[in-house]
Structures are given as C-alpha cells and as structure tokens.
Write a structure and sequence with these properties.
- The protein has helices spanning 25-37, 42-56, 66-72, 90-103, 117-129, 139-144, 146-154, 169-182, 200-208, 210-223, 238-244, 273-276, 314-321, 332-346, 352-364, 388-399, and strands at residues 11-12, 15-16, 62-64, 75-79, 108-113, 132-138, 158-162, 187-189, 229-233, 254-262, 278-282, 285-289, 325-331, 375-379.
- The protein is globular and about 55 Å long.
- The protein is of the alpha/beta class.
- A 6-stranded mixed beta sheet has the order 3-4-14-9-10-13, sandwiched between helices. A 4-stranded parallel beta sheet has the order 7-6-5-8, with helices on both faces. A two-stranded antiparallel sheet has the order 1-2.
Amino acid sequence: MSTEVRPKVGAFGEYGGRYVPELLVPALDELERARREIVPSRAFQSELSRLLADWVGRPTPLMEAPAFSEACGLEVVMKREELLHGGAHKTNNVAGQALLTRYMGKKRVIAETGAGQHGCATAMAAARLGLEAVVYMGEKDIERQAPNVKRMELCGASVVSVRTGSRTLKDAINEALRDWTQNLETTHYLLGTVCGPHPFPKLVRDFQAIIGREARGQWRKRYRNLPDAVVACVGGGSNAMGIFHAFVRDEGVQLIGVEPGGRGIETREHGATLVAGRPGLLHGARTSVLQDDEGQILEAHSVSAGLDYPGVGPEHAYLRDIGRARYVAVTDEEALDAFERLSELEGIIPAFEPAHALAFLLKAVRENELRAGAHVLMNLCGRGDKDLETYFRFHAGRRGDS
C-alpha cells in the first residue's frame, strides 16, 4: 500500500483513519478531545462505574456449559453478556457514549441499528440520562426485528424507517450520518460498533473492552491460567473486539472471529467481510469490505440482522493481516442449528449473532480448527428473544408449512 493513502489519524496499520466530508471534521475533533480528556477523568469513570453496576448489571458471570461442551468435544465457558440490561453487550458502549454526550453538553443522540439491540440500548440509555433519541433503521430490519422497534418506542425514542438501498444497516448508517451533519451543535452520533471514522473504532472498543478485562480476571481466578482460545461472532465487530482486546498480548491464546457465511461464501450472499472482503472505504474508514471488481460496495446477507453489514471494524482487519486473529465463516443453516442446540442442551436461547460462534464450536474439532478438549472462552453476546419470530418463520419453511 502506498504511504499517501495510509490513514493519518486513528490508524490500525493500513486501516482505520478518517475519510469524511469537511463538515464532520469539527465534530470528530470535538469527540476525540472528549475521548482523551473526559473519558479518563475520575468524575466520568466514577459515574460510568456506578451506571454499569447499578443500571447495566455488570459484572456478568462466566458459565460452564457441560452438555454443549460434550457436543463440541471442547471445554466451553461462556461470558454471559446476554444477561445485561437490554439483552446484549450493546449496553456497555451505549452507557458510556450516552454519559459522554451529557458531559459534552449535548441533549440529543442519534443512532443506527440493524438487529435492534443497539437501538434498544440507545433508547433505554437516553431515557435514563434525559436525552432525546432518534434511531435510524432499515425497513427490512424493522420487519425482521419488530419487537425491538416497539421497545425503542416504548422508551421514548423516534424510530425512522430507511427505505433506500438494501434497506438494512448500511443504509441506516448513511441516514444517521446525514442527520449528524445537519445537527452537529446539539447532537451526538452514538455509533454502535467499532466502525466508522476515527475516533469511533477506539471509543467503542474502549467502552466494550470491559468484557475482556472482566472475563480474563474471572478466568484466571477460577482456573489459574488462560483459555486456549477466545471465540466471538463478528459483524461490525464490537462484541468480538470487546472480548479480544484484553487477550491481544497473550500470544498463547487464539483469537477466532466467526463471520456470517449466509447462503455460502461461493454464492456471494453472505457478510463475511474478513474472509472474503478486500481493502476499501466504507462509512468514513478504510477497512475490509465486500465490493465488486469496480470497487462498488456489495450488499451483505445474513439471517442475523446484526451481522448483515458489508464492512467491519478496521482493527479486526489489522489483527487478521498481522496474524494475531483468524476469521472463519459459518452459514445461516449452521447458525440456526446451533441456535436450536444451545436452547435444547443448556436452556439458553441465544441471539442469531452468537449462534454463529456456537456453530463454529460445534464443528471446530471435526474440522481440525481446535484440538479436542481445548478450553474455549466464548462471548454469548445477545439473547434470542428478538429473533424468535424469524426463527419460527424459518422453521415453518423448513417443514414446508404454509
């Protein structure tokens, strides 16, 4: 890669940076100052700690999963992020950014959402902290995630249906960015994952890194060592980066991200940006994206609305390139089978997103991805309530019901 296109700020190797209209630069500079000056302050950290403990519900437990482990041929321990207030890891980042919004003197937050979890978390945090919330959501995702739309509205948020493009997360982000450019003085764009222009990838990662710090400490206290591997699903990449970050320097610990293989990598109907993508620009950052031979962004596909995104956090692309993390893909069918297996074996209904990581674990020994009996820490990042309607429609389709 030539040096003239290497990111000048917020770089992860050749990825990251800030590729945005000039109009957004002052807001991003203001946010970077807040990240450096407000976030580390004693007052902010003290208030955030109370919020995470009393309202979000930290710490989440580690849980051994004996029946699922036996099915995998592994020793699987799950970090129970789905037990957080709101039902997913999203609440960690949202609590931090919403609190930061108030410290920055702004009264309004906007957000984008795919699966609805980030939108719900934003709506709840805005209600808690007295902020106005507007959530942009693709029309297709609104249909797939109707219960979450109701939750957002119940918490006082306005949900804006995006009917352009593929009517999914990518287009919701575009609309949120347009709103932000028109309301910079009053509004913070509460980005939901480790994507976007600098400083968002670092800001979101640092708010989500509590997952890995907490899990690493809990594992060492319980087992006196470290896991052989840490596994998480990857869409935009916030839950994976959250649990990976504390283990990046532990080179004996494998970091494995599981992407949505959709209907199969060979079909091009998937969202495996790290397995099958190439470097490009998307939503203000250079990262690994799905694109055609002319550089046009391709539509992603996944049964999971939260993984249906043609880009990924730039730090993941960097970890892939330096060989510190590896990324694999599983299909919709494999994820849905894993969704059923965890429900039957452990009495936990997972979201479709972590079901992708579960699907990888179910075949990892058979396909020589992990040795039999390996000790694995897996981030169970969301619960499956939101996906039940989609699951029942899919299940009826498999049975041939009308």
